[in-house]
Amino acid sequence: MNTTEFLTIAGAIVPDRPAVLFEGQQFTFAQLQERVNRLANALADLGVGPGDRVATMQVNCPQGIELYFAAALLDAIYVPLNFRARAAELAQMLEIAQPRLLGIGERYLPLIQDVAGLAPEQVVVLDGPAQAGQHAYDTLLQSPPDELHFPEGEDDDTTVIMFTSGTTSVPKGVQLTHDSFASYLLSTVEPADPEVAETNLLTVPLYHIAGLQAALAAIYGGRTLAVMRQFDPLEWLTLAQDCRANRAMLVPTMLKRLLDHPDFHRFDLSALKVITYGAAPMPLPVIRQAIAEFPGVRFINAFGQTETASTITMLPPEDHVLEGSPEVVETRLRRLSSIGKPLADVEVMIVDEAGSPVAAGEVGEIVARGARMMKGYWQEQEATGDTVRAGWVYTGDLARQDEDGYIYLAGRARDFIKRGGEMISPEEVEQVLMAHAQVEDAAIIGVPDLEWGEEVRALVVRRPAAGTAGPAGTAEPASADALATELIDHCSRHLAGFKRPRSVVFIDQLPRNVMGKVMKRDLREEYGYPVE
């Protein structure tokens, strides 16, 4: 199924329903269709055709959604770029993608001044006046809507190139097809219904697979999409209340910032019915608090990555209900640390280094195959061959699967620590640390050691001193040395001895990308010095 049909279907069924809400602006599905068609005509006049790349660099806004559908109507390829990229990083991505056009926010124009091969006539300013030779987005929207465009490509043609998040030094462009999106949405989302009206709150950036999938799901489902430029906890709470949001997707750090906001309980969030979370590991204390603070909300843990076009496993709402017998509650608490089970339309296995399935409970790499997997990396045949083997996408995520089919992450393959021949999962140690009352955030890295090869080091963010109980119930927080000893002892009580940290470093905050993933490479560079 071609993704342009998502908008066509919703426009036919609920034409007068608001499709997009954005900072006081509102477009119905019929109006969105007209804007997309005007834009497609303008892009065609600028020479955009099948296979051409149309890149964007801007915070979340309606223009990003409109450009996707306009490009798809012309069988062109949409390339959303990280708006946090520096000039050198942006130049690198543009060199790889070679876009016919670049739609860019006015504030980011200085970044492209020295980009070789990018002419002014290739630049579309999305939210301001055009400079010499450039195009203004609002002017393009003045194109006549009369000529209709219909895509002629195949469902397995590339429709999006999405760059990996940057945990490696060289970004790779993941090619996602129309089927990559359609296979997921057709199996998980009901089409637009005149009798069912919902509002989705879009916070995750459109250059991330979770953000783009959320936007396309809302369009296909005939849901109103309330768009936030960037996440801010107070703005999120205000918008969720004012637009009576029913659905939202949050990464763990976003959810934690909402729960920790001093005004959280002042807002009426009773319209919320579904919160999906993912993109980074969810600390158990955070999801337990969220379940308590959002009564009546159905939580879903969705796991996937760009190469799998989003979700391949899910922990469903029923596993978040902490009610029933003590045995049931204990089982569900354990499962809250998992990423659930594979979705019905995706094949998922845990395999060893030879690609053979491992036994239940053993750690291996998650591999997946199905219609939604990436087509490959853009112009990276060798990298594609390393990741896609015999039709299986090797995710780089290590995990184990229990007897009931629930999958528990063990970390990234390159983050795993090998101490004296024993393999240590950073995530397992991090979960234990996060359960300590004086730990706000934590990450585990391996550091060189002459005797053991690698040792476990904990990077810990302490909870604010106010209200933090100190040793023996005193009001004073523990000293750094005392707390370090306490945390190591805490890990020793809950983990095998070889897994406990041998050193603890206290830092102000962990470096995270926009999706909440800890940038372990940055931590290793700064704190990965040998054990003394």
Key attributes of the depicted protein:
532 residues; alpha/beta; Rossmann fold; 5-stranded parallel beta sheet; 29% helix; globular
Number of helices: 15
| Sheet of most strands | 9 strands, mixed
> Could you give me the name of the CATH homologous superfamily of the domain at 1-177?
ANL, N-terminal domain
How many whole angstroms does the radius of gyration measure? 24 Å
Shape: globular
* CATH fold category name of the domain at 1-177: Rossmann fold
Helix content: 25-40%
| Model regions low in confidence, pLDDT < 50 over at least 5 residues | 467-475
CATH architecture of the domain at 1-177: 3-Layer(aba) Sandwich
Structural class by SSE content: alpha/beta
Largest sheet, order of strands side by side? 2-1-11-10-12-13-14-15-16
The level-1 CATH class of the domain at 1-177? Alpha Beta
How many DSSP E strands? Answer: 27
Distance, first to last CA: 59 Å
**Averaged pLDDT, please?**
91
Percent of residues in beta strands: 25-35%
